[in-house]
Design brief:
This protein has 214 residues and is α+β, with helices and mostly antiparallel strands. The protein is built from 5 helices and 10 strands.
Length: 214
């Protein structure tokens, strides 16, 4: 009799747990910025880039989340900050509630990032290859696995850690997975420079990706 009572009590609890687990928050936790800093690769450093993410998300009606820019840095004599270490563990969803990736491994091995899913904070498509103007270059400064460059890479790949709007270069990815001789969303090629004009020439506008560190 006691066993039956225990089972009777347990079943509703199990059902509640299953319902809670299935009620996954699919609100926006990933987006491509609709605009850049307006100053090329000078984003005000990582802090400025993070603040830009938060401002855009709030303006789009998203609140209660901690936003970080998907950007790496470089340091003398050691590896800098890695983009993948800044964005939490997932899962991440775009503004339309579509799953981008469940975790860091999926994000860097087989993410659902394409032109149709790489939406901005308002849920709009971002111009890609074939559109005028093309804006598919997304600043990342990272290698394909999401980690910062090794210190033996002497060339600038982060626009002086996101403070330069002139000299230097930045690694960029393509949200539409076209161009650059590969389909990388985070490490397609390097920019011609860090000015707004230089970024535009390679198919960009100083845009980057934002993730909510859930």
């Amino acid at each position: 009799m006691k066993l039956l009572k225990i089972v009777a009590v347990s079943l509703p609890l199990l059902a509640f747990g299953a319902a809670t687990a299935s009620a996954q928050d699919t609100s926006m936790s990933f987006f491509v910025t609709s605009i850049g800093s307006g100053n090329g690769g000078d984003l005000g450093g990582l802090a400025g880039a993070d603040a830009h993410c938060a401002t855009l998300a709030e303006a789009a009606g998203s609140s209660g989340k901690s936003w970080t820019a998907y950007l790496s840095t470089q340091e003398d004599g050691k590896r800098g900050t890695s983009a993948r270490d800044r964005i939490g563990s997932g899962p991440w969803y775009n503004a339309a509630g579509v799953l981008i990736a469940s975790n860091l491994d999926e994000l860097h091995l087989s993410p659902n990032i394409t032109k149709s899913t790489g939406l901005d904070e308002a849920g709009n498509l971002v111009n890609g290859r074939g559109d005028k103007p093309n804006r598919h270059d997304l600043l990342t400064g990272t290698m394909m696995d999401g980690t910062a460059y090794f210190p033996n890479v002497e060339e600038d790949r982060t626009c002086s850690n996101w403070t330069s709007s002139g000299e230097g270069s930045a690694t960029v990815g393509h949200h539409d997975r076209h161009g650059g001789g590969n389909t990388s969303w985070n490490a397609a090629h390097n920019s011609r420079g860090c000015s707004q004009e230089a970024l535009t020439k390679t198919g960009g506008a100083g845009l980057f990706m934002c993730f909510a560190a859930n």
